[in-house]
Design goal:
The complex is a heterodimer of chains A (168) and B (551).
Chain A (H helix, E strand, L loop, with lengths): L1 E6 L2 E5 L4 E2 L12 E4 H6 L1 H6 L4 E5 L17 E6 L6 H12 L5 E6 L6 H7 L3 E4 L4 H8 L17 H5 L4
Parallel strand pairs in A: 3-4, 4-5, 5-6, 6-7, 7-8
Antiparallel strand pairs in A: 1-2, 1-8
Chain B lengths: L5 H22 L5 H9 L3 E3 L4 E5 L5 E3 H14 L3 E4 L5 E3 L7 H10 L16 E2 L13 H12 L14 E4 L13 E7 L5 E7 L11 E8 L3 H15 L10 H8 L1 H15 L8 H10 L13 H9 L1 H10 E3 L5 E6 L10 E3 H14 L3 E4 L5 E7 L3 H10 L14 E2 L14 H10 L3 H7 L4 E4 L13 E8 L2 E8 L11 E2 L4 E2 H18 L6 H8 L2 H8 L3
Parallel strand pairs in B: 6-7, 7-8, 16-17, 17-18
Antiparallel strand pairs in B: 1-2, 2-5, 3-14, 4-5, 4-13, 8-9, 9-10, 11-12, 12-15, 14-15, 18-19, 19-20, 19-21
Helix pairs in contact in B: 1-2, 1-4, 3-12, 5-9, 6-8, 7-8, 10-11, 14-16, 16-17, 16-18
The chains are: A alpha/beta (168), B alpha+beta (551).
Chain lengths: 168, 551
C-alpha cells in the first residue's frame, strides 16, 4: 500500500499517521485515528475531546451531510470506493468541498484505480490510498494527461468556457 | 455544424495519446485484460464474439462529407471495407485490430471525431432529431444544445462512474423523431407563455429488460438553466441509483422505485442547493456555439420544381423514392432526402466504404456537405434543392443506395445480434433479411404503408423491439434461437410499449407470423388507418387469433 498526497509541487508518498479503528478496537489515548461514521456518531463526544487529529470514513452509501456540521473539527474525511466502478464518492467529494466548505484532507480509499486520479483530483480529493507499488509513477503518468476541462468544479481549474471568454 | 476550437482539439488529441499508452501497456503485458477492460471501454472499444469492435461517436448524428470520407477510409484501411450505423446514430467497426485502434482514433481526431463515452457507465453520445435545422416548425436547432451537452458531459469528473450508462436525447420539434421518451433524459424544446424557449424535461424512459416511458419532471426549464438542471438530475441518480444489481441500475428503475414525484422533489432540492457551484452557461458561449448551426446559404428558389415533377411522371422508381424518402423542408424549393440503408436482403445499417464515399460526394454536390445519421439506421442529406432530386437519385442508384422504403415495412431496425454481439441470444440480421425478402414486392409494401419492425437479439433491446409496431425479440430456448413477437409499440410522440402476443416462434416461423399480423391489419383497417391506429381500435385479439389459430 502507498499513500499519495497531491501537493502544489506534485505528488508525494507520505506515511499514514492515522490508525484505522474497527468497530470494537479501544480508542488509544494518543495519536490520530480514523473511524467509521457509525462509530463517530456513537462516540462523538469522546472522539472530539481528544487532542489528536480525527478522521471519519464514509462508506459509498453514506452521504456527506452526515458529517457536515462537524467538518471544522475533522482533519480527515476518507471516502470509500468498494469497487472502482462505484462512483458515489465523486459526488460526495464535490459536496464536501463545494457545498459544505470542507478544507481538510480528503482521501480516496478502497479500490482506487490510477486512471481515476484525474477525476478524483477534480472532485476535491487530495490524498489517495493506492495498492500499486508504482503509485507515484502512475500518478505522474495520468495526471495532466488531458489538458482541457469542460466542467467547473471546486478545483478552480479554468474550464474551456473560461478560457474562451478570456476570463482567466 | 460545430467546429472544434483549440480546446476541443487539445482534449481529443490528449485522449488519443493517453489511449495509445494504455494499449502499449496492454500489449506489453503490463495490464491484464481485467485491468485493461475499463480503460478500453472508456474509448468505445468492446471485445465481441469474434473480434474487437470500435464504436465511433457521431455527435447527435451530424457529420460532414470530410468526416464521412474519413470513416470510409478507416473502413478500408483498418477494417473489412464496411461499417455499421447504429440506433444511437453512431458507427461501429466490427473488425479492428487492437494494436491499430490508437491509429484509428488519431485518424478520427484529424476530422474532429472520437470514440469517447461510446461505452461505459457514463453519459453517452447525445442523440437528436435527424431533421434538425431542416424541419418545419422547429423552436430552435436542438444541435446547439446537444453540443453544449456534449462538452459538459465529456470526461465529467463526477459522472464517469454512474450506476449504469446514461443516454440523453434532444428534439426541437413537436413531432418526435429522436425517441426522446425512451431515453434516460429526453428534452423537448418548448416555449412558455411569454415566448421564451426552454425544455420539457423527461426522465426515466428506457428499453432493455424493463421498459418504461419517461416521466415529465419539469414542464418548462428556461434554456439557460439546462446544465445546472442536468447536473442536479445526474447527481441525484449517481447517489440514489442502485449499485447492487446492474439490471436495476438504470435511472428508469430509480425513478420507478422512488416514484416520479419524490424523484422530482429530490432533483429540485439539489438544484436549489447548488447555488454558485452550478455549472453556468454564459450567453456568449451559447451564441458562439449557435453560430455554427446557422442555416447554410440557402438560395431563393421557386416553389415549383418542373424537372423533378416531370421525372416523377415518367419514372415510377423515382416517383416512389420521392414519395417515401423525401420529406418537406422548412425552406421553399428545398427538400430533405433520406438515404435508406435497408436494401432487400442486407444487414440494416451497414454501408460499404464505397457507399460512404458516394454519400460524401453527393452531400458535397447537393446538401452543403452535410449528412445526418438517423436512429432508424439510415442517412439523411438535409438540404437538397427539389430540382436536384433527379440527379441525386441517379447518384444513389449508381451507389446501390436508392432503396425507397423509409418508414415502410422493410425499413427495419435491427441490432447486430448473434452474428457479432457477445450478449445476444439469437441472430437479428438474418431475420431482418428474410422479412425484407418476403416483402420485396413494392406494390405490397406501398399497400401496407407505414410499418415499423424492430428486432433485438437479446433482452437488452438495442433493436428497440419494445417500441416497434411489430417487435421481435430473440431469446435462447434450450440452446436454440427462438423469437418472441409483440405488437402495438411506438417510439414517437405517442410513445407506447408493445405487448407480447403469446408463445414464441422458431426462426423459420417468425416471417410467417409477421405476414399474418400484416394480413390481419390489411383486412381490418378502415380507410387511411395506420397499423397502430387499427391496433389501438381493435386490440390484440384478432392478431392473436390469426397467428395462433385460436378463434
Amino acid at each position: 500500500m502507498a499513500l499519495l498526497e497531491s501537493r502544489a509541487d506534485g505528488p508525494a508518498l507520505i506515511d499514514d499517521r492515522y490508525l484505522r479503528l474497527d468497530e470494537t478496537a479501544p480508542i488509544p489515548a494518543e495519536g490520530a485515528v480514523l473511524v467509521s461514521l457509525v462509530r463517530f456518531h456513537a462516540e462523538r463526544a469522546a472522539l472530539l475531546a481528544r487532542k489528536a487529529p480525527l478522521g471519519v470514513w464514509l462508506a459509498s452509501n453514506e452521504k456527506p451531510v452526515a458529517v457536515a456540521d462537524d467538518l471544522e473539527r475533522l482533519a480527515l474525511v476518507a471516502l470509500d470506493f468498494p469497487v472502482f466502478s462505484d462512483g458515489r464518492a465523486f459526488s460526495s467529494a464535490r459536496l464536501l468541498r463545494e457545498r459544505y466548505g470542507y478544507k481538510g484532507e480528503l482521501r480516496a480509499i478502497g479500490d482506487v484505480l490510477c486512471e481515476q486520479l484525474p477525476f478524483m483530483l477534480r472532485s476535491g480529493f487530495d490524498s489517495f490510498d493506492m495498492k500499486s507499488p508504482k503509485a507515484l509513477e502512475e500518478f505522474r503518468a495520468v495526471v495532466g494527461e488531458v489538458r482541457v476541462v469542460y466542467q467547473p468544479t471546486g478545483d478552480g481549474r479554468p474550464t474551456a468556457i473560461d478560457r474562451r471568454l478570456g476570463r482567466r | 455544424m460545430y467546429q472544434y476550437d483549440e480546446f476541443d482539439h487539445a482534449l481529443v488529441q490528449d485522449r488519443v495519446t493517453q489511449f495509445r499508452r494504455q494499449v502499449e501497456r496492454r500489449l506489453a503485458g503490463e495490464l491484464t485484460e481485467d485491468q485493461f477492460r475499463p480503460l478500453r471501454l472508456m474509448n468505445g472499444l468492446y471485445l465481441q464474439l469474434h473480434a474487437y469492435m470500435l464504436r465511433v461517436a457521431i455527435p447527435y448524428g451530424t457529420l460532414d462529407s470530410r468526416q464521412m470520407r474519413k470513416l470510409a477510409y478507416i473502413a478500408r484501411r483498418y477494417d473489412k471495407g464496411y461499417g455499421h450505423f447504429t440506433t444511437r446514430q453512431n458507427l461501429q467497426y466490427n473488425w479492428p485490430k487492437l494494436e491499430e485502434t490508437p491509429d484509428i482514433l488519431a485518424e478520427l481526431a484529424e476530422v474532429e471525431m472520437h470514440a469517447i463515452q461510446t461505452s461505459g457507465n457514463c453519459i453517452r453520445n447525445v442523440t437528436s432529431d435527424q431533421y434538425a435545422g431542416a424541419a418545419e416548425g422547429e423552436i430552435e436547432d436542438p444541435r446547439i444544445w446537444c453540443e453544449i451537452i456534449r462538452q459538459w458531459s465529456t470526461l465529467h469528473p463526477e459522472f464517469s462512474f454512474l450506476p449504469r450508462k446514461f443516454k440523453i436525447a434532444v428534439t426541437g420539434s413537436e413531432h418526435d423523431r429522436a425517441a426522446v421518451k425512451v431515453h434516460d433524459i429526453g428534452l423537448i424544446m418548448r416555449r412558455d407563455g411569454s415566448g421564451q424557449a426552454g425544455f420539457e424535461v423527461i426522465v426515466g424512459g428506457g428499453l432493455g429488460r424493463t421498459p418504461f416511458i419517461g416521466k415529465t419532471i419539469r414542464g418548462f426549464l428556461p434554456k439557460e438553466h439546462l446544465l445546472s438542471y442536468l447536473e442536479a438530475i445526474l447527481r441525484v441518480y449517481n447517489q440514489l441509483g442502485r449499485r447492487d444489481n446492474k439490471f436495476k441500475a438504470r435511472i428508469k428503475v430509480t425513478v420507478h422505485e422512488t416514484g416520479a414525484e419524490e424523484f422530482t422533489r429530490l432533483v429540485d432540492e439539489e438544484w436549489a442547493a447548488m447555488g454558485d457551484t452550478a455549472p453556468k452557461l454564459p450567453k456568449q458561449e451559447v451564441d458562439r456555439i449557435a453560430r455554427y448551426f446557422e442555416p447554410p446559404a440557402f438560395r431563393a428558389l421557386p416553389k415549383a420544381a418542373p424537372a423533378s415533377e416531370a421525372r416523377a411522371k415518367s419514372d415510377p422508381g423515382f416517383a416512389a423514392w420521392v414519395r417515401h424518402n423525401v420529406s418537406p423542408h422548412k425552406i421553399s424549393g428545398y427538400a430533405i432526402a433520406n438515404i435508406s440503408l435497408k436494401p432487400v436482403g442486407k444487414p440494416p445499417g451497414d454501408a460499404t466504404a464505397e457507399q460512404m464515399d458516394a454519400v460524401a460526394d453527393l452531400a458535397d454536390g447537393f446538401s452543403f456537405g452535410e449528412i445526418r445519421v438517423t436512429h432508424a439506421q439510415n442517412l439523411v442529406l438535409p438540404h437538397v434543392e427539389r430540382e436536384s432530386l433527379p440527379v441525386l437519385y441517379d447518384g444513389l442508384v449508381a451507389a446501390g443506395l436508392a432503396a425507397s422504403n423509409i418508414g415502410l415495412l422493410s425499413d427495419i431496425i435491427a441490432c447486430p445480434g448473434l452474428d457479432y454481439c457477445a450478449l445476444a441470444n439469437a441472430r437479428s440480421i438474418p431475420i431482418a433479411e428474410r422479412i425484407t425478402e418476403r416483402f420485396a414486392d413494392r406494390d405490397r409494401l406501398e399497400l401496407i404503408g407505414e410499418m415499423q419492425i424492430k428486432i433485438s437479439g437479446c433482452i437488452n433491446a438495442c433493436g428497440h423491439h419494445h417500441v416497434g409496431h411489430i417487435g421481435i425479440l430473440g431469446v435462447d430456448r434450450k440452446g436454440e434461437e427462438h423469437y418472441q413477437v409483440q405488437i402495438g409499440g411506438s417510439a414517437t410522440e405517442d410513445a407506447a410499449l408493445g405487448r407480447i402476443l403469446g408463445r414464441g416462434f422458431s426462426a423459420d416461423e417468425v416471417v410467417d407470423v409477421v405476414e399474418k399480423i400484416v394480413d390481419t391489419y390489411l383486412e381490418r383497417r378502415t380507410q387511411g388507418e395506420s397499423f397502430i391506429e387499427t391496433y389501438r381500435r381493435i386490440g390484440q385479439d384478432p392478431f392473436k387469433e390469426r397467428v395462433y389459430g385460436t378463434a
